[in-house]
């Protein structure tokens, strides 16, 4: 698969209940946490870049400046499946042959890993792999979009990823930020992963 044939969608509409505040706008090395993944994705010359956000969220303006089209999710309480449905609907408005789903609270995913997922995509779903389980970012060929539209609740596409091809990501890059403690720990990881000695 070539990048121009892929719609990239960043899911950024979660309620961040465990974090206790606007997680994606939390400071991470002088910039909003939610921008880290967006910068990596924006650097991949895909057929479209979308961000699924809650209406009126401050992070949306940052995504717009990076070239993302904003897709409002007015019902984030129904769970991750709602954002997945909106992602597919956005991709269907393009000529994309595959949909790459990434999460805004995974700050260490790099463009090179995203490009490896795209390059590996043919007829099967391809997921990132941390050595234990398949997870986002993941890429779904168009033939699998009905499976995404059939998801329900907050489990997302976990059952679909169980049978996916796997691309190992660099160590430590697939962590996500759920709590304030995760954010504090991730800043230590940032210096280890992004600034090796």
From TrEMBL:
**Has UniProt tagged this entry with the keyword Transferase?**
yes
The UniProt record lists the EC number as 2.7.7.76
Enzyme class name:
transferase
Matching entries from Pfam families are given as: NTP_transf_3
What molecular function terms (GO) are annotated for this protein?
molybdenum cofactor cytidylyltransferase activity
Instruction: Tell me the protein's name.
Output: Molybdenum cofactor cytidylyltransferase
> What species was this sequence derived from?
Sphingorhabdus rigui
What keywords are assigned to this protein?
Magnesium, Nucleotidyltransferase, Transferase
Per UniProt, residues of the MobA-like NTP transferase domain are 9-164
Highest taxon of the source? Bacteria
